[in-house]
């Protein structure tokens, strides 16, 4: 039993310090001092990483989301400050940089912390600077004096190096940061952390790899069936034999629901139809939120893989009358929102849907996605972090590192649209999403809830939940900008050596064995397919090749006919007049419409008629809406006072349209027979050759054909694997050689020397860096005004979300239209140069934002710009921010005191206004 004297001694300052030293035995003085900054004990992996860092090693920390990895990064900050050196803290996105900057300012004060994100430049010479990874890469290539005294670089979310668009930047930084700088790499849990650590050890020297898979807040997995919440796993056994397995209740429930779905819904019994089984309906989103509230599982983030779905969910909650906040909380929310939006004009707030946004927030509900105005997104993040917002409906972009954890994460579906197809969530994506669940220091446990549906197999969910790690694969490749900067710094040979040190090459060398093994397996399978396709009447592989040639020719002819029909449709649009009633034959605007304005001369690709549909919608159509020629089916009078912006005018004219045009005309569709192949001599010859081939009469012809098609597909895949095996050795260096060959041919490099044009290219950090430099060199923008320049430069940063076959976008007329056409021609010339040198880096310029950029630079109002652009406020702001970034590079690359430099500055000033000016996050 402890004596009173002993207890009193233990409670004295000296006693408490002695107890503290006992707990922290083995720590260096910096770590001892650092631990006093926190009101909680550090975890074992944090202590291990900090000890390694204080001992002089670099570190790689791979741990789950929310486990406290950033403590190790903050220790590097502490070491820099105590040692009188510098630390750069890099993040993948501006939102994270802003968030980390605010955290460090609260701890160390604004005089010791700076921020560099492209949008913001605050105290850049401070000992601690938070920045995006691209900013550090650019500083390294420019040999910025700010690098002097740098001792630590923290790379938060380093697993971003797998990103196919931006991942190369992380490897560039790791390779090019001076050897004296220690790297602190913080990553989500990946399955090949040791492999990544080995590479870091090779290129950076001594690097400690610390992997921790323990979540500080345990995560429980559930499935929601209707409004019933099931545990995904149940414990079986006792003691050492205890283990988790899939909940058998879920399995039985899934089997029963599938059985019901297979019941014959159309079966008749005598004269009466049998009752249909009730179709499964997923629970309404308001019902899910109310169920979580009853279970004490709020606040929650529900991941919905579409922006429209997120906005719809908020509206559904509002219509259902959900209120998750008290009166006091609602008042606090309103005060915060009004303060944060005080710089936004009332007119812009109206356009941005501020009233509905605020009402939802006051009820504790919000959406969060990239289409929102950045200021609105920041407000949601701030209120959610403060516990005032209880239900957020978000796209997966929220899972990308922003500090916004919840008690519960809900996942509606296990597949998402990736831009090309619906694909299943990977274990890594599932882990990233559910990693938001469980707030350290607030929750004792986190919860992940998957909403059940007939297509959701509980075993599949268990597989995703049970796979807690995923591989980290490099996406590195040399770029034109990288090449001129590297050659300028170290020469071609040394640059090749540096690039061979990349993680991409490190992984490539290890992958050859596995690829060669797969080639051998494929070759064995090909022998079996060829055997199965054999025909006793002749060479079936020869016959199959003839069938493929016929199919290819038919497809080619179909494309030619389609092009001819589009030309005919364009000619027919030129004859339309206001008041003509037409049938729009296809697309989401199909149906009856009246022409308000023929739109002749508005676009370079042909007329773009403005019409009013029977649904009272005013739309600007394009040639893509008319796959065939159109003729008026009737005419109606348009009142002189008609205004497309007046809802009553639209309603009256649409009523006239419906009443005057007969029903049979509404349903009419012009159709034309298409003898696409009947008069093509090559197709006729190929068909005759097929009929004459010996195997054509085989009664097992289609069986043989299926095996031949499998052979063809596998042979194509195998040939690609063979080329990959052949190309693995020194693959990065060979690509670099081809890039340099392009640059030599175009005059950006002269042997080991970088020319003046090459130095200009070195200042352009853009996906279309070479096309930007060539446009500058050709003087394509020299005579443009500021709005025309904005339109042209936008084509180098914007990428449309529209499908490839969408209508050609509208562009400004005059000099900018000529410049844009010249840029597209220049891209074609560069593509030919790339093809000759066996590289393909440059995409075609995208003109989809040119008209919008032009109008915004001209000073048009936000509502007019958004109405015609079909963009959300968030997409618009982000596109303008990207454009401003490249315009800034044009200013830097253009000659001193040139007209172009002045014009680019004027364009930036003209565009940095309104919603663009008062948003801090891009």
From TrEMBL:
Gene Ontology MF: a single term: hydrolase activity
One GO BP annotation of this record: nuclear-transcribed mRNA catabolic process, 3'-5' exonucleolytic nonsense-mediated decay
PANTHER family in alphabetical order: ATP-DEPENDENT RNA AND DNA HELICASE (PTHR12131), ATP-DEPENDENT RNA HELICASE SUPV3L1, MITOCHONDRIAL-RELATED (PTHR12131:SF1)
Residues covered by the Helicase ATP-binding domain: 50-208
Record carries keyword ATP-binding: yes
Sections of the chain in a coiled coil: none
Presence of the UniProt keyword Translocase in the record: no
SMART domains linked: DEXDc, DSHCT, HELICc
Name the UniProt record assigns to this protein: Probable helicase HelY
InterPro entries cross-referenced by the UniProt entry: DEAD/DEAH_box_helicase_dom (IPR011545), Helicase_ATP-bd (IPR014001), Helicase_C-like (IPR001650), P-loop_NTPase (IPR027417), RNA-DNA_Helicase (IPR050699), SH3_HelY (IPR058621), Ski2/MTR4_C (IPR012961)
Segments forming domain Helicase C-terminal: 309-488
Biased composition (Basic residues): 268-279
Organism: Actinomadura montaniterrae
Domain of life: Bacteria
